[in-house]
Amino acid sequence: MEEVLSFLRKNTNLNPDDYVVIGLSGGPDSMALLNLLINYKNECNFNIVCAHVHHNLRKESDNEAKFVKEYCKDHNLIFEMTKFKYDTKFTESLGHKMRYEFFDKIVKKYNAKYLFTAHHGDDLIETVLMRIVRGSTISGYSGFDYIVHKDNYDILRPLISVTKEKILNYLDEYNIPFVIDNSNSDMSYTRNRYRKKILPILKQEDLNVHLKFLQYSDCLKEYDEYIKDQVNCIYDDIVVDNKINISKLKSCKLLIIKHIIYRWLSNVYKDDIYLINAKHLNSILNMIDSLKPNIKVYLPNYQIVKEYNKLSINNLKETNEYEYILNEEVLLPDGKKIIKVNNSKLTNNFVTHLNSSDIVLPLYVRNYRIGDKMTIKNFSGHKKLKDIFINEKINLNDRQSYPVVVDSSGNIIWLPGIKKSSFDNKKNEKYDIILEYR
Q: Beta-carbon neighbour count of residue 179 at 10 Å?
């Protein structure tokens, strides 16, 4: 692990009175990093703060928190912990957001110079592959940075050049204890499927494949920095009062247009910008090219509005509106889900079977809008959703946020849990899309 200590010596400047914070789960990665920091501490005698997140999702979490706390006490390290409570259903993105908000709070409490996280080479490969499949930007495709400059501190990831195998060998060699999070074997998590199924194949081809991904990441970052410099020269002329001048934007090359839009979104989303993918960006590009003077596009938590020659962005928490692209799954504001499944035993209104040749993809899930109508299965003509809600005794407050599934032509193809449309097919008919409302 000498390369990790070399990274620390090269990228830190620490004095005896300085503080650093490490995100310490108690797992093998963070325990290896902690012990490397302890070794480095012997050189410059700084203070280590261990920040532990109790996600409150597994029964083992109490024992893990106890393990970390006792280890810190035995090694004279400062221990800080938070225990999360979720107002909505837990998602990986929500956990990421809350975790880094906690870390930021602890860094500021101790006026720390650095926050250390235990992301390693295997994590980088998984992240790059996931974003290639999901769709992203040049910056996104490069994975994560091993140094992130925040306002008053830096986030450092010293393990980025080493593999999981090397970390485990280090722990074994120095008899360093750690705990195992069993959820890391749960194949319902996307990252775990990449870790268990794809990564071993890549390592069969080249044991040092993580270094190739690191080179790939660095190369993309260089291109990204150059493009950002070009965008900086023209951004303030195109974006005024947080509104984009469409005619000026369209005078640029497509690559520059995409980066201007992404920077514009980043200023609003900040640390949540990872929620934006290539499909969201393409939706905005399509509305820019549309001949329609007034259009709305819905992104996670925000609404993009085109009004003649201007693009503006509104917070959906203020408008109470939402619209999501339905790929594999949509998590609704009330914590319920609409999921694309391979098969279903359901026969009620909580499932619908669709033929992609009958509709226009992609599908969207949005809230109810005044004037909405749909063609109901086995019913001639259109019926207003308002009348359906009244018949089903759906109260007025719930109507405003009720999910409606539409295709790209605006046809309402399903009112989840209430009514199937004429687009629904029986199990003995032709279909290639099955949706469930959970």
A: 20
**What is the domain extent for residue 210?**
2-214
Q: Report the pLDDT averaged over residues 1-16.
A: 92
Burial of 171 (0-12, 13-18, 19+ CB in 10 A): middle
- CA dist 263 and 258 (Å) reads 9
What gap in Å lies between CA 245 and CA 344, rounded to an integer? 47
Q: Mean pLDDT over residues 385-408, rounded?
A: 89
Are 182 and 330 found together in one domain? no
Phi and psi, residue 326, nearest 5° = -100, 100
Residue 55's φ and ψ, nearest 5 degrees, are -75, -15
What pLDDT score does 238 carry? 96
Partnered with residue 406 across adjacent β-strands are 364, 412
Mean pLDDT estimate for the chain: 90
Supply the CATH number for residue 252's domain. 3.30.465
CB 321 within 8 A of CB 298: yes
> Which pLDDT band, with edges at 50, 70 and 90, does 327 fall under?
confident
